[in-house]
Amino acid sequence: MGESESDDVRSWSGPIEQMGDAERRALIDVMTADEGPSVTVTEALRNNWLEIWYQPKIDFKHKCLAGAEALARINHPQLGVLLPGSFLADVDDDAIAELAEHALLVTMSDWVMFEKAGFNLHLAINVPAGVLFRMPVTELVAEYRPKSERWPGLIIEVNEDQIVSDIGLAHEFAAEMRGSAVSISIDDFGAGYSSFSSLRNLSFAELKVDRSFVRDCATDTTNAAICQTAIDLSHRFGSAAVAEGIETQADLQALMAMGCDFGQGVLIAPPMPKERFLDLLHQRNKPRAGAAPAQPGGKLVDRVA
User: Fold this and answer.
1) How many Cβ atoms are within 10 Å of 154's Cβ, its own excluded?
2) pLDDT of residue 51
3) pLDDT per position as a tens digit, 161-192
4) Which CATH number goes with the domain that contains 103?
């Protein structure tokens, strides 16, 4: 049997600023644990156990919420909330494609719910390149995209090493997506072995600095140099720099001083079910009827200030 929701740090339900250091560290540990597979993706989809959770993304300049990354979770009736390490290990491409299509459709549907509540957000999903380039993304977006003129589009995150290894397909995909309001984000930048010359002509909206370099960037001179280089490089490409996996206030302040545009991590807010995410939006942002804000006014958490 799994832990009860009240005891499971993965299902934290209190105000984010009341999450203590011990709870935050426990959540970081469980999110990065190398768990063996317990439930298959196919089984979860068949039984409606698969949920899409959202981790807020913060605009450092305006100190407010700018969007969120959609993340898969399995909410098992006996095992509780399962993280990707429990169900994505050794999964085949067919199952990943099924999961990716589900995430794509759910995320677009959830955007409509957020928009009706007064929040116009950029939402992002993560899809492996080998699966993404075989998916009928154009057709799916054309049929299921939100009909609102305010929809800012969808961001699809692809790991750096994967996108460089398939750079030709990446160029074709980016060109095809130009008319579909879908843009590419290069995820885990710095963790692979990218060639800058391969990326220079690729149209992408974001460059996400890998958490291994974000960690201790306030005190580790090597990590700080890599973060600064990645931030400067993204700006030269005309893209936004996003720091992922922010865990400490010192690192957050250092990234802001470096000119990083956006950030996400457990320090700011952990991934959460869409209902809790919507509650957080209402708590921290005041909807503006009739407006089309990319970043709703108001701070998400005091730590960003």
Assistant:
1) 23
2) 96
3) 888 777 778 888 888 887 889 998 988 776 65
4) 3.20.20.450
**Structure confidence at residue 160 (pLDDT):** 81
User: pLDDT band for position 45 (50/70/90)?
Assistant: very high
Residue among 249, 305, 248, 269 at smallest CA distance from 13: 269
Q: What is the mean pLDDT of the chain?
A: 82
Which amino acid appears at position 68 of this protein? A
Mean pLDDT of 22-30: 65
Distance CA 214, CA 209 (A): 7
| Domain assignment of residue 301, yes or no | no
Q: For 221-247, how does the pLDDT look when each residue is reduced to its tens digit (9 = 90+)?
A: 999 999 999 999 899 889 999 999 999
- Structural domain tally of the chain? 1
Establish if 259 belongs to a structural domain: yes
Is 130 within the bounds of a domain? Answer: yes
Q: Is residue 139 part of a domain?
A: yes
Mean predicted confidence (pLDDT) in 52-56: 96
Q: How many CB atoms lie within 10 A of CB 93?
A: 12
pTM of the model: 0.80
Residue 8, number of CB atoms within 10 A of its CB? 16
Return the bridge partners of 71, or none: 53
SS (H, E, C) the chain: CCCCCCCCHHHCCCCHHHCCHHHHHHHHHHHCCCCCCCCCHHHHHHCCCEEEEEEEEEECCCCEEEEEEEEEEEEECCCEEECHHHHCCCCCHHHHHHHHHHHHHHHHHHHHHHHHCCCCCEEEEECCHHHHCCCCHHHHHHHHCCCCCCCCCEEEEEEHHHHHHCHHHHHHHHHHHHHHCEEEEEEEECCCCCCHHHHCCCCCCEEEECHHHHCCCCCCHHHHHHHHHHHHHHHHCCCEEEEECCCCHHHHHHHHHHCCCEEECCCCCCCEEHHHHHHHHHHHCCCCCCCCCCCCCCCCCHHHC
State the residue range of the domain holding 115.
9-287
